[in-house]
Amino acid sequence: MSDHFHSLNCISFGVPFQLTADSESMLTSMLACAPGGTQVCPFSIPGARKFSLLTQEGTVNVAAGDKTPVEHAELKSALQQLARDLMVHVANYAPERVFMHAGVVGWRGRALVFPGTSFAGKTTLVAELVRAGATYYSDEYAVLDEDGCVYPYPRDLQMRLAGGPEQTAVAVEHLGGSVGTGPVRVSLVVFTEYKASGDWQPEPVSPGNAVLEMLRHAIPVQRTPARVMATLAKMMESATAVRTERAEGREAARSLLAALTLERSSA
Q: Per-residue pLDDT tens for 127-150?
């Protein structure tokens, strides 16, 4: 392990952090893993958490703050962990945004949000919606302000091939789509789960129950539960919510956009 370290001071969504590595090339790779909107600062920021990737005897050690470092045999897996650690840190401490695990697209000036965990099929559904003409906002995070508006988090779509765990980054332009450029009101929240024989039969969900369901997917809920609940409640002032199973993604995308068009025309 080198005794000479390289560092960058960064900030993302108002959350400061420091990246440290034992080589310039490693530091460049770390910065590429940082959350969207990350900026490099020319000065240190008080209270910034330190994230480090250090090589030692053929392994890569990933450390976040005062947590015990985790050893990886391959750089790829170390960088994947770093990306997760950085995202969770920013999502937990962003002072003016609430991050929720959800796919998000825009349609005729309003947003469709479908909360869900990893492997719930969010990216597949977002991809089909974009192919059908929706505007891409995110395949993983709904980024909300205190008024309940949702902002773009336009990373490349992380698509799993043949249902396996490995992901491939796919640019939205490759799907013939475009990225949202600003915040929009949410019109429809859909709690949906893929089932091979699932039927598209949406049932209404009350605003209160929708908020309770979304709390399960909101990243900072344990730190700031009152703020998160207030943000989600504000979002539901302009939105309706439904629950349904779904089968094939293309058919579900058409049904979703038809539902969003109906919500928009009746608003």
A: 889 998 999 999 999 999 999 999
Q: Are 113 and 102 in contact (CB under 8 A)?
A: yes
For residues 143 and 219, the answer to whether their CB atoms sit within 8 Å is no
Angle, CA 158 vertex, CA 156 and CA 257 arms, to 5°: 80
State the SS3 of 198-246: CCCCCEEECHHHHHHHHHCCEHHHHCCHHHHHHHHHHHHCCCEEEEEEE
Same domain, 16 and 142: no
Find all residues with CB under 8 Å of 177, minimum gap 6, and list them: 130, 131, 134, 135, 136
d(CA 125, CA 104): 10
Among 93, 110, 144, give the residue marking a domain's end: 93
> pLDDT by residue (tens digit) across 45-84?
888 999 999 888 889 999 998 888 899 999 999 999 999 9
The Cα-based distances of 143 to 85, 123, 182, 231 in angstroms read 18, 16, 11, 11
Asked whether residue 82 is domain-assigned, the answer is yes
- 198 and 237 assigned to the same domain: yes
Judge whether 72 lies within some domain: yes
- Kindly state whether residues 215 and 156 are assigned to the same domain: yes
Lowest mean pLDDT among 151-155, 178-182, 261-265: 261-265
Q: Are 86 and 17 in contact (CB under 8 A)?
A: yes
pLDDT of residue 2 exceeding 50, the answer is no
Q: Give the Cα separation of 112 and 207 in Å (integer).
A: 15
Tokens representing 89?
Answer: 């840190």
Q: Does 173 reside within a domain?
A: yes
Range(s) of the domain holding residue 28? 6-93
